[in-house]
Design a protein that fits this description.
It is globular and about 55 Å long. By secondary structure, the chain is α/β, with parallel strands linked by helices. The chain is built from ten helices and eleven strands. The protein is 42% helix and 19% strand. Strands 1, 2, 3, 4, 5, 6, 7, 8, 9, 10 and 11 form an eleven-stranded mixed β-sheet that branches. It has two domains: 163 residues, Glutaredoxin; 127 residues, Up-down Bundle (Glutathione S-transferase Yfyf (Class Pi), Chain A, domain 2), CATH 1.20.1050. α1 packs parallel to α3 and α4 runs antiparallel to α6. The structure holds glutathione. The site of glutathione has 10 residues, from α1 and α3.
Length: 306
């Protein structure tokens, strides 16, 4: 067991986890798979993250990466396999991923909740509390407009492929493809009337098959207790960094909180290790996880000195 293995904390039905699983497939990586609960509490996960509960989270040794945006850049920096940002298109990929999260995942989450009669009450109750953009009472009335938003988003993917290119940025697959594929995958598996929604989108369907063919790399199961053993017996490899033009103006080692600016806004508290235009990281200590550094993307997170 190597302390530098990629460990993904996730569950099968998560579309955000699917983005990362596909990225691991593109890179043909071997990785360890820790299954986390679909609903709170998630004590083994939050021991690592300090409170962040979203899915997925990636761990490498004593470094814990929250949010698919941050996970993608870290996976890319590992250097193995093809780049997730071919042609140095990291900015473009990030913008397309953010568009997909807003225009496809948000209505898709509403449709998954609102059209799936079989979801257990425990999941419905957890998600309606978590997704503060969804109103349980009025959801049935919102369904037609959610279907319309989702279908309009799918059309954009079809349009991006209009010149019969293989992938969204051209001939080479990228993080933009993984990010847009995840809600399509969610639609097929979690949304009623998926076939109806996907009608008349031939380029999208062919692209979907190409994306599916990447698979998920080579996962092997790991228990959460093993992952905690790894974090507590290794040291973070994070290099401290404070960009001169980073906001807010804080010094390294200052105690801060980092909080998602959208839903699931649980603050994570720790000593500032990195603050740049791209990332923020805090060091924290946990009885079971040990001394860990928790990494977030800079965009979409509020950083506050205490
Ligand atoms: N911005 C986050 C969003 C992640 C997200 O919303 N994940 C959903 C699952 S697909 C989630 O956390 N659901 C609640 C949970 O798993 O507890 C990212 O890119 O990773």
């Amino acid at each position: 067991m190597s302390s530098q293995e990629v460990i993904l904390h996730h569950f099968d039905a998560s579309p955000f986890a699917e983005k990362v699983r596909v990225a691991l497939g593109i890179k043909e990586l071997s990785w360890r798979s820790v299954e986390i609960p679909m609903v709170m509490p998630k004590p083994d996960l939050t021991a690592l993250t300090g409170g962040y509960r979203k899915t997925p989270v990636m761990q490498i040794g004593a470094d814990v990466f929250c949010d698919t945006q941050r996970i993608a850049t870290e996976l890319n920096d590992l250097g193995a396999g093809p780049s997730l940002f071919p042609g140095d298109n990291q900015g473009l990929c990030a913008v397309i991923a953010a568009w997909s999260d807003a225009s496809l995942f948000i209505p898709g989450a509403g449709l998954a909740m609102g059209t799936n009669q079989d979801l257990p009450e425990a999941i419905l109750a957890d998600r309606f509390a978590f997704f503060d953009f969804l109103d349980r009472k009025s959801l049935p009335q919102q369904l037609p407009s959610l279907f319309a938003r989702f279908r309009a988003g799918l059309q954009r993917i079809e349009d991006m492929l209009a010149d019969e290119r293989s992938f969204l940025l051209g001939d080479t697959v990228s993080w933009a493809d993984a990010s847009c594929y995840a809600p399509v995958w969610m639609c097929r598996s979690n949304i009623a009337h998926a076939d109806e929604l996907m009608k008349n989108l031939p380029l999208l369907e062919a692209w979907e098959q190409r994306m599916k063919a990447f698979g998920h790399g080579r996962p092997t199961v790991m228990k959460a207790s093993e992952a905690l053993k790894i974090s507590s017996s290794t040291h973070s490899l994070a290099r401290p960094l404070l960009d001169v033009d980073a906001w807010p103006k804080l010094e390294l080692d200052r105690v801060v909180t980092v909080t998602p600016e959208d839903y699931g806004a649980v603050p994570v508290r720790g000593r500032l290790v990195r603050l740049s235009q791209y990332d923020v990281a805090v060091a924290r200590s946990d009885e079971r996880a040990g001394e860990v550094v928790v990494h977030f993307p800079r965009a979409g997170y509020r950083v506050e000195g205490l």
